Amino acid sequence: MRVALIQQRSYESKEATIKRTLELIDQVAREADLIVLQELHQGPYFCQSEDPSRFDLARDFELDVEFWRWVSEGRNVVLVASLFEERGPGLYHNSAIVLDRGQIAGKYRKMHIPDDPGFYEKFYFAPGDLGFEPIDTSIGRLGVLVCWDQWFPEAARIMALKGAQLLIYPTAIGWFPEDPQEEKERQLDAWITIQRGHAIANGLPLVCVNRVGFEADPSGCLEGIQFWGNSFACGPQGELLVRLSTDQEEAQVVEIDLERIREVRNIWPFLRDRRVESYGCLLKRFCD
């Protein structure tokens, strides 16, 4: 499977941002089977502050899906888009849509919703209710998750147990400029390490695509977020296959060998040796 990672900045308007996205897509579309875009890729990461006017961004959800369906058809690729979904009045989701050469293959609604300074997503998004369900496409079964989901091993495990062949994380994560350099390095290292751990623990390749560039906090409460890029792909033993830059827009294609899933799981049979009868505590918030 040839997978294209599209890492980009946000521009002054939705139209300008999409124009740049299409330019990056067209750099790699002929080489790729699958193209993965970053979280909420049509504009800025608007969750830095709580602003009811931002809900208007979701009004064109159906039109947005149709546009990216057209893009996937025209480029003859499978495309993972990340969109702001208005499900009904007052009900919104952070949703990933998988388009398969002009067909809607499936949808995932972000399950884990953060609520931290600069990441006020609980104000905007209801938790997903579609569960952790892999999406079947013409190129394989995709385990699509979104950003904050990447910190939770349970999400990756369930996708693996349901037959996903590739874990995919559209992402928007970065540093606060005021943090010391040592803290920034710890955060980035933790982010890469835990996702490589998901790949290893489940014997699956993984693709994570993050945005890049500085975006100011429109409320002025914080300075803003420096999105740290570093989009990457790794194999089923956590081996890095490609890692993009910290501060540049990039479109890169990486080849992922799905046959290695079987090879790696045969020598590291973690799924065989799971003690499922002893994991009941995982269904509790905390095991007193």
Chain-averaged pLDDT: 97
Q: Kindly estimate the percentage of residues that lie in beta strands according to DSSP.
A: 25-35%
Rg over CA atoms = 18 Å
Q: Largest sheet, if any?
A: 6 strands, mixed
- The CATH superfamily appears as Carbon-nitrogen hydrolase
Portion of residues within helices? 25-40%
CATH architecture: 4-Layer Sandwich
Annotation field: number of helices: 6
Shape: globular
CATH topology: Nitrilase/N-carbamoyl-D-aminoacid amidohydrolase
* Strand order, sheet with most strands: 5-4-3-2-1-17
CATH class: Alpha Beta
Instruction: Report, as a whole number of angstroms, the end-to-end distance.
Output: 45 Å
Residue stretches low in confidence (pLDDT < 50, at least 5 long) are none
Q: Domains counted in the coordinates: how many?
A: 1
What can be said about this structure in brief?
The chain is of the alpha+beta class and 288 residues long.
Overview of the structural elements:
With 288 residues, this protein is an alpha+beta fold. It has one domain: 4-Layer Sandwich (Nitrilase/N-carbamoyl-D-aminoacid amidohydrolase). It has six helices and 17 strands. It has helices at residues 14-28, 61-75, 121-124, 153-161, 181-202, 259-267, and strands at 2-7, 34-36, 78-88, 91-100, 103-109, 115-116, 119-120, 135-137, 140-144, 166-171, 174-175, 206-210, 212-216, 224-228, 232-234, 240-243, 250-255. A six-stranded mixed β-sheet has the order 5-4-3-2-1-17. Strands 8-9-10-12-15-16 form a six-stranded mixed β-sheet, with helices on one face. Strand 8 (135-137) and strand 9 form a beta hairpin. Helix 4 (153-161) runs parallel beside helix 5. The longest helix has 22 residues, at 181-202. The radius of gyration is 18 Å and the shape is globular.
